[in-house]
Amino acid sequence: MNAHDGRIYLDHAATTPPDPRVIEAMLPYLTTAWGNPSSIYAEAQEARRGLDAARRTVAAVLNAKPNEIVFTSGGTEADNLAIRGVAEAQRARGRDHIITTAIEHHAVLHVCDELAKDGFRITHVPVDGEGFADIESLRAAIDDHTALVSVMYANNEVGTVQPIAEIARAVKERDAAVAVHTDAVQAAGALPLDVEALGVDLLSIAAHKIYGPKGVGALYLRGRVPFRPQTVGGSQERNRRAGTENVAGAAGLAVALRIAQDEMVQTNELLVSMRDRLLDEIPRRVPGTIVTGARDRRRRLPNNASFAFKHLEGEAVLLQLDLQGIAASSGSACTTASLEPSHVLVAMGVPEEYLRGSLRLTLGRDNTPEHVERVLAALPDAVARIRSLAPAG
Fold this sequence. Notes:
Layout: E1 8-9, H1 20-26, H2 28-31, H3 42-62, E2 69-72, H4 75-91, E3 97-101, H5 106-117, E4 121-125, H6 135-141, E5 146-150, H7 164-174, E6 179-183, H8 195-198, E7 202-206, E8 217-221, H9 236-239, H10 247-262, H11 264-285, E9 289-291, E10 304-309, H12 314-323, E11 326-327, H13 343-347, E12 358-362, H14 369-389
Parallel strand pairs: 1-11, 3-4, 3-5, 5-6, 6-7
Antiparallel strand pairs: 2-8, 7-8, 9-10, 10-12
Helix pairs in contact: 1-10, 3-10, 4-5, 11-14, 12-14
């Protein structure tokens, strides 16, 4: 599945290669069943059946009702729709306060910033050194005006898995009228998504993180939750998101999610063994390295190995690895020394001398133990080369 023969792809948190079974499921809606699912003639009804089937599949995996699934253009729209849709509806009830954490994806943080400009109060709950939200601080932050709590299920940079069910219980015990949203974009395919067990009211996923197509996602929206549509026009998605549905994308998302659910246990076993090899060996082989994220590996995504190097630019490491045929990520917003380092690492209190040297290796179904060994062989030399060229000042 690698894009180029001989290259090693270790950035599955950014995107994943489409599964051939997903592409096969999409093809009918790009070739013969191309009708508009809102129309009533035969061509349209074939597309409608595909859309309905996809909705049922997604609902089944999430243990939700089909009418609680809203198809979107991806995870970012699902997050935006969840937060803005609930916030605007709740404000009409006198609730204008949103609680989130300091390490959310920008799809959550930036929409909260926009709502703050519109008069909403935003509380950012702190996290500890491993990236876990402070549940007591979260509980204490809830007041009579709180509309929504949004906490990501698993962090995209450091892989820390939040105790979402515990967080949801704490919120509901304090005030049952507060809606709970979780960004599950990174968790999908790796962790259980049963919305009843999690106790959440809204949950966001994206297809391209689970070997599906880009440009499609879904929002689970519990039926009783106050909600105001953000895209208006037609009556699609039960008047919650106007616009002709992406039937092929929905079909691809549904198949990708079903495969991910069915194969999760065996896939995770494979990924955990390779992840643990990276977590154990990289700090041992590369001086001045710390592991970022949860120390308890049961509370970390099975495919995520994240690190920070002392007195080093992470981007320089990525370029060296790329030259050796290895695609990885810094897991950071910084691309030059003048830009801010990752907000996640800053919130976790990572020491200043490590902040710009982040490396995120995220494994996938196409990786092998041999790939891991190649990385372990290449990385120490790459770091040593960079340090020799730019010694710490």
